[in-house]
Task: inverse folding
């Protein structure tokens, strides 16, 4: 998709403090780079496995641009990692896309899918769990009253890991268990003093 940014530069000429300011506007168009991931934006690999970076391609019109890659995946530690691909257009404006890679504890069991809507038992709020890749999920509200999102990793659909996730409320992590339709989470908001290992209970709808 071709995207354009209209940039307005204004030159202000000051004469004397008692005189009017004169301005002259100059504008031009610039085309952002279009960066396309090779492979999926969300991936999962099993702990101890191998992450093969499929890279990305960046173009400005028909011209291919150099792509810079930032971020690593630690396959020895369960968690979610970001790999960022950046490129710059001819006018010096940057663009980027991100691939998120989950390292899950073990291969996902056949038929496992915890995606769906869940109701918070103490307030009635509805949250949604979305499946990104095998064993790799995202819940848009793990807290209830305040919408605190977090990733969820699970191999068997029962024992859950809430890996370290950066949110507007700071760093979040925890654990959980899904027993039938009952979702019991233990959540820590690391940057909100005192909110450590707080139980949050949900029911699948």
Result:
């Amino acid at each position: 998709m071709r995207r354009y940014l209209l940039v307005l530069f204004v030159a202000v000429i000051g004469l004397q403090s008692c005189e009017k300011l004169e301005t002259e506007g100059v504008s031009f168009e610039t085309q952002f780079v279009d960066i396309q991931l090779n492979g999926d934006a969300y991936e999962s690999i099993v702990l101890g496995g191998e992450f093969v970076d499929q890279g990305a391609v960046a173009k400005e019109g028909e011209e291919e641009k150099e792509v810079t890659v930032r971020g690593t995946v630690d396959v020895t530690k369960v968690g979610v990692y970001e790999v960022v691909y950046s490129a710059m257009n001819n006018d010096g404006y940057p663009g980027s896309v991100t691939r998120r890679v989950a390292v899950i504890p073990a291969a996902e069991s056949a038929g496992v899918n915890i995606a769906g809507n869940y109701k918070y038992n103490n307030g009635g709020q509805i949250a949604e769990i979305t499946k990104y890749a095998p064993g790799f999920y995202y819940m848009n509200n793990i807290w209830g009253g305040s919408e605190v999102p977090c990733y969820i990793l699970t191999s068997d659909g029962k024992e859950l890991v809430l890996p370290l996730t950066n949110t507007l409320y700071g760093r979040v992590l925890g654990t959980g268990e899904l027993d039938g339709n009952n979702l019991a989470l233990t959540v820590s908001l690391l940057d909100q003093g005192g909110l450590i290992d707080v139980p949050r209970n949900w029911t699948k709808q």
Residues 1-23 have pLDDT under 50 and may be disordered.
